[in-house]
Amino acid sequence: MLAVRDVDSGYNLLQVLREVSLSIEEGEFVALLGPNGAGKSTTLKTIAGLVRGWSGEIVFRDEPIGDLPAHRVARLGIALVSEDLNLFTGMSVHENLLVGALRNGDRGGRRDALDRVFTLFPRLAERRRQLAGTLSGGERKMLALGRALMGEPALLLVDEPSLGLAPKITNTVFAALAALHAEGRTILLVEQNVPRTLQLVDRAYVLEQGRIVLEGPATMLADNPHLQQVYMGAAG
């Protein structure tokens, strides 16, 4: 579904990504792991068209998208749930979700998508008339993810969904991602909770200092000595 080939990217004169290559097949759940500042969020933003790659190639369903602006990438079916969420805080939960459904022109499809979001996140159903700006941090994460799902994306890019969340809310978010994967959704996840993530995904890439340094099936990476020592706190 997605191929990122030898992509360099960054901001102004600051290079962040160096020859990054990764791929995702239809229906896969793939993680991008690494320390703070490694370039994980920049990778997602470059795929989504929010940051223009300097060189290399990004191909989505056989169509080059590396030079497309973000709104055109979104129309192709790629949805980014960014770390900063970008909610409309002066609008209600329900209104924010409907904004996410603008790509979905079928009214019946919008109703089905709304029902699916409320099934995944019952708390959003309880707060559907509440202003987004008054939600807790965990509820905002749920709303951002739900808004992305309203457009029925083919590829979901999710950046740090558990950051700053209480364990109970983290469990809810991870359970929702697992349910989406079970439905056949294609997901690229950036996450710092490495042990939990490797229990959830099919494959993973490890990004350090802007370069992919490891990749493979999640079960194999869970036993990798470097990951165990650096990211899982194992003695060594």
Strands side by side in the biggest sheet: 6-7-8-3-9-10
What do the pLDDT scores average to?
A: 91
Shape: globular
Describe the sheet with the most strands: 6 strands, mixed
- Count of DSSP E strands? 10
Query: What percent of the residues sit in helical stretches (DSSP H or I)?
Result: 25-40%
Counting DSSP H or I runs of 4 or more residues, the number of helices is 10
End-to-end Cα distance:
38 Å
Low-confidence parts, pLDDT < 50 over ≥5 residues?
none
Strand content: 25-35%
Structural class: alpha/beta
Radius of gyration: 17 Å
Order of helices and strands: EEEHEEHEHHHHEHEHEEHH
Describe what you observe in this structure.
This protein has helices at 40-48, 70-75, 93-100, 107-120, 122-126, 137-150, 167-182, 194-200, 218-222, 225-230; strands spanning 2-11, 14-24, 29-33, 55-60, 63-64, 78-81, 155-159, 186-190, 203-208, 211-217. It has a six-stranded mixed beta sheet with strand order 6-7-8-3-9-10, sandwiched between helices. It is built from ten helices and ten strands. It is 38% helix and 26% strand. The chain is α/β, with parallel strands linked by helices. The model has no long low-confidence stretch (mean pLDDT 91). The protein is globular.
